[in-house]
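Record pair follows.
FIRST:
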Amino acid sequence: MLELTLQILHALLAIGLVVAVILQPSREAGMPGIIGGQNLFGKTKGIEEKLSKVTSAIAILFMISSVVLAFIVGR
């Protein structure tokens, strides 16, 4: 039962991570984008910053759930 619950959570996190990455705005193309170009006057928009934090949080949770599932299935 625990394994099934974690698998469902893992699948939801995977879908959430894909959606969060797709919603990320594209960066500048070319050389400024490669070396870390910045937005207008070096400021990021509030929504982009929040989306970046949400994406990072989902990615961390996804990695943790991957490790936990690996240990549970490996037993």
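SECOND:
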Amino acid sequence: MPSKKATIENVRVALKRLKVRHEIEQIEPETNLFNTGALDSLALIQFVLSLEEEFSITLDYNDIQFDHFKSFSDIQRLLKSKYGC
């Protein structure tokens, strides 16, 4: 069972753990994280691990797709709909 609710702020916390060089708080919920450079393919894998830790879940391999991780809002939708966060 998830330990937290998937709020935009809680998703941001998981990304902050990666110590990306972007002002995470300044990125709007619908902004594409890949276009801003906050995420790339390598950082995505690290971010998935951070999300799993933050929410006490295990993401299904099939859910690790760029479309699910484009924005904070996309991530929040995935976590709420599939994992009950």
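COMMENT: The first helix runs from residue 8 to 16.
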